[in-house]
Amino acid sequence: MSKIPVIVVFAPTASGKTALMHDLFSCKGSPFFLKGEIISADSMQVYKYMDIGTAKPTADFCKKIPHHLINLITPDVQFSVAEFLDEVDKDCELINSKGKIPVVCGGTGFYIRSFLYGLPKTPESDSSVRDMLKKRIKDEGNEKLYQELASIDPLSAAVIHKNDEYRICRALEVYYTTGKTRSSYKCEQRFREKYNPIFIVLEPDRKILFERINKRVDKMISEGLKEEVLSLKKMGYTKDMPGMKAIGYQEWFCDDEDTLIIEKIKHNSCKYAKKQYTYIRNIPENLVHPFSGEKCDIDEIIKIIQKELKIF
Fold first, then answer.
1. Which of 21, 80, 153, 179 sits a CA distance of 20 to 30 A from 106?
2. Strands of the sheet with 101-106, listed across from one edge
C-alpha cells in the first residue's frame, strides 16, 4: 500500500499558520491552489461555540478550503489524543482518496508529535485509581496534583498544562498503577509507516511573536471574546469543563477587572507559546524544515513540498 503524502505544519499561536494556508491553497498563483484540505491540530478548536478565543478560521475561508476536526464536540466533553489520531487518520485517507493533500496544521505539539510518531503503549486505564485521582483533584485542586506529578515525573509535568486535569490524572494513574512514570513509555523513534510527511515548523522571533500575540488578544476582545465567554456561561458551561480551561476562557472565571483579565490572557498566551515547542524539540533536525523569519518564504516552502512529496 502506497504511503499517503501529508503536509504537517506546526507553529505557536499568532505565528502565521492561517496566512501560510491561504498562500498555499487559496492563492491562484500557487501550484497547490484548491488542492489541499486542512485538518486542525488544535486541541481547543475541536469545541463548539468557542470561535473567537480559539482563533478558528473564518466561514469564508472554510468554504474555500475544507477544514476538519473543528466544532466536533461541546465544551463539557473531554477529547483525548487517541480520539484525535483516530479522526485525523480517517480524514487523511478521505482527503487522499479525493486526490487532494491532507494538511495537518496546528499549535498543539502533543497532537503533532503523536500524529508523526503514534502513541506509546501505556497500561490500560484502572478505573479505581482513576476515580480516586478524580476525587482528589476535585477536593484538592489541579495545582496540588500537578505539583505531585512534577515531583514524581518532571518530564511529563513539563509538557502538561497545570489546568489539564485529564492528562495530570492519566500521568499519575500510570505511575500509581505500574510504579513507572508516564514519560518512561517511549514512542517509536521513526515516523509512522502509513504516511510520507513533510514537517514544516514556523519559528518567528520571540519578541515579534509576543507582539503578535498581544495584538491578537486585543483583536479578540474587540470582536467580542468576553461576550462569547458570557454566552457559554449562560449555556451552563463551567470553569471545570475541559473546553473552558482554554486560555482566553479560564481567565474570565474570577472577579478581576476586565483590564487585568486581558493582561492575564496575554501573559498566559505568551507563556504557552514558549511551551508549545516542548513536544517537537527532540525530533531530528533532518526531519524538520524550520522557517524563522517574520514572514514565511512561500516560494521556498512550495519548492520543498514539491521536491519531497513529488506532487503537483
1. 153
2. 67-68, 36-40, 101-106, 4-10, 195-202, 288-291
Write a three-state SS string for 227-275: HHHHHHHHCCCCCCCCHHHCCCCHHHCCCCCHHHHHHHHHHHHHHHHHH
CB 280 within 8 A of CB 109: yes
> Which backbone phi and psi does 82 adopt, to 5 degrees?
-65, -40
How many CB atoms are located within 10 Å of the residue 99 CB? 8
Rounded to 10°, the helix 127-140/142-152 angle is 120
Question: What span, in angstroms and rounded, lies between the C-alpha atoms of 218 and 203?
Answer: 22
Q: State the DSSP code for 105.
A: E
Each residue of 230-257: pLDDT tens digit?
Answer: 999 999 999 989 999 999 999 999 999 9
Contact 9, 20 (CB under 8 A): yes
Q: Is 39 helix (H, G, I), strand (E, B) or coil?
A: strand
Say how far apart CA 75 and CA 246 lie, in whole Å. 10
Q: Residue 1 — pLDDT band, cuts 50, 70, 90?
A: low
What is the spatial distance between Cα 152 and Cα 173, in angstroms, rounded to a whole number?
12
User: Residue 139 has what DSSP assignment?
Assistant: H
pLDDT, tens only, 273-290: 988 888 888 899 889 999
